[in-house]
């Protein structure tokens, strides 16, 4: 991930210029080029496929949009594009921007967000944990398929790790899973998934 040298942007300016460019996010007005790799996109695609199958089995109104932007704070120029977002379609009628833009501002619309870790692991394990918790998103997955995260987050020895963050009160309670372990998800209690299932070939 690199930081694009530019002047600070408002949220509205970001939408006007970068709404259709999924490689860019905005953090406190600063444009961020996330530069996803092929393996990163393969992992995100496999996670989305597994979740779509689980959603079909659950017979809910949940969906995974092709693209959407999360606006965690109405008073800050921050726009996040999780690698996978699970939305409650029935709640989208209360989203003020949804009819015009794929922008989510309310926690009630979001069931789960997933970030696949790249070189910007600090953002996924720290800043986004805080932002998503403050937004009230009930569950956040961090898929660290290369074991890039700091040892404070994934332990030692560093290895591929799947972290499930469940919102309890205002903070996330984290559970970590390694290769070969069945992932436990409060949002998807019948999900049959292991980190092995989403690793790139």
TrEMBL record:
<keyword id="KW-0255">Endonuclease</keyword>
<dbReference type="InterPro" id="IPR008538">
    <property type="entry name" value="Uma2"/>
</dbReference>
<dbReference type="InterPro" id="IPR011335">
    <property type="entry name" value="Restrct_endonuc-II-like"/>
</dbReference>
<feature type="domain" description="Putative restriction endonuclease">
    <location>
        <begin position="11"/>
        <end position="195"/>
    </location>
</feature>
<dbReference type="Pfam" id="PF05685">
    <property type="entry name" value="Uma2"/>
</dbReference>
<keyword id="KW-0378">Hydrolase</keyword>
<keyword id="KW-0540">Nuclease</keyword>
<protein>
    <submittedName>
        <fullName>Uma2 family endonuclease</fullName>
    </submittedName>
</protein>
<dbReference type="InterPro" id="IPR012296">
    <property type="entry name" value="Nuclease_put_TT1808"/>
</dbReference>
<dbReference type="GO" id="GO:0004519">
    <property type="term" value="F:endonuclease activity"/>
</dbReference>
